[in-house]
Amino acid sequence: MWTRAELKQQAKAGLKQYYWYGVLATLIYLGISMGISFLVNLLPLVNLILSPLVSILVMNVMAAGLKRFFTISTLSAQSAGVGEVFGSFKNGRYGNTVKVMFLRGLFQTLWTLLLVVPGIIKHYEYYMVPYLVAEYPEKDSKEIFRLSREMMNGNKFKTFVLELSFIGWTILAIICCGIGLLFLNPYVEATIAELYLRLKEEKLNIPRGQAQGMDGMTMNSGVSYSAIADEGQTRQLGMSGVVKNGFVVGIQGAFSGANVPVVPGDVLVIGSDSRQCNLVIQGPEVSPVHIKISFNGVNFQVTDCSGAGTFDMQRGRLPKGSPVTLNSGAYLQVGTGGDIFSLEVR
């Protein structure tokens, strides 16, 4: 069971590595929000129509992206890249994100109009919806809400108390002309991201970076397999019981939750051509052969073969055609889309 002190301690430890990126991500979100509000208010006759549309189509989606930024950054103890704030616009599931976030707001509003207390309860019941839809954008709304309810079962009041524990810092930030909120927000967001990751472990049995997928299929971390993913679905094609300690772990996208062993001497190929690749990802920016990954027992050799690029989320874009040595803990993004993998040695 989690405690407030433990979550905050872990959040602060990881936040040291990416705090100013967290401030920047917050500034981008708030800046765009205030800028759009200012522009909309210049048109009072259409304000009643534009404001809800902007909230539904833009700000809700960015809010999910901001949650994802802090989740990945917390998970890796390094910045996920502030572009992740816009990740939900370009993961190929924008419409589903809009729908899920709209329904969340609608349900909360309707419950609050009915009675205040049920509205508060529903607020915490749907608390993890933005995190879930950002990480698993292929999941439909029913599944997202079900998972959030499951995660928050028995944790609603504890989460309320966790939020309440920031009230002193919040008052101090407001006293500082409100600008302090910009610098406080990364701490709050990192703590809630820790809560999300912890509840995934406790309620959904999905350890950090390990093998249980969201469909309830547990993938054995001691086997190698070939898989194909299309439209967010993962399908196993073959398995061999060879235990190794190099893994490519799906963090976001079609293979989110997958745990793929990389056998020394073999090459894991990721791309859109099922004839040439072990992991097949369909997307406009995914090349037939996009990335080649090998493992020598100590570290990984990664070769970008794509047109859209492969990005080390700490170093930036990898050089095309030249093998790059990466250590355990590195995060790779396929193009600028929503597929992200981590490299792990166990």
Automatic annotation (TrEMBL):
Ranges for domain FHA: 268-311
Domain of life: Bacteria
CDD domains, sorted: FHA
Pfam families: DUF975, FHA
Transmembrane segments: 18-39, 45-66, 101-121, 166-188
Gene3D superfamilies for this protein: 2.60.200.20
Keyword terms: Membrane, Transmembrane, Transmembrane helix
Name of the protein in its database record: DUF975 family protein
Organism of derivation: Candidatus Caccovicinus merdipullorum
Lineage: Bacteria, Bacillati, Bacillota, Clostridia, Eubacteriales
